[in-house]
Amino acid sequence: MKRIITLIVLLILIGGTGFVSYRYLTIRNGSRLYFMKKDTGTFDRVYLDVSGWNIVDYGMHPKISTFLAAKGIRKNEDNWKESIKKKMDAAKKELESLKEKAGKN
Fold first, then answer.
1. How far apart are CA 65 and CA 69, in angstroms?
2. Which ranges of the chain have pLDDT less than 50?
3. Among 1, 26, 33, 88, which one has the highest count of C-beta atoms within 10 angstroms of its own C-beta?
């Protein structure tokens, strides 16, 4: 009985993976996955990694660029620049508060 249940679960997993591969393009951007519906069902293109793409690559694939722009996805460079700026501002505020405390003593 365990073999039958295992076989059924395995067939469901394989069928689900096949369906997703046939109908959707899996796009990986860093550690995130996105599923873009294909115009026609095909196994031609199943998976795409856009982590290292530059502006030329995005220009060559306008449908993928439009999909990612609609999702509000930016390149990782923008995110780390913003986070560094926020941390630098927080460090400056902390230094100013320490200077005030030292001046009072």
1. 6
2. none
3. 26
Q: Residue written as tokens 């060559």?
A: 60
State the DSSP string of 17-73.
HHHHHHHEEEEEETTEEEEEEPSS--SS--EEE-TT--HHHHHH-HHHHHHHHHTT-
**Terminal alpha carbon distance of the chain:** 78
Cβ contact 26:6 at 8 Å: no
Selection from 87, 30, 25, 12 nearest residue 61 by Cα:
25
Q: How far is CA 100 from the centre of its chain?
A: 43
pLDDT by residue (tens digit) across 55-85? 888 888 888 888 888 887 655 555 667 777 8
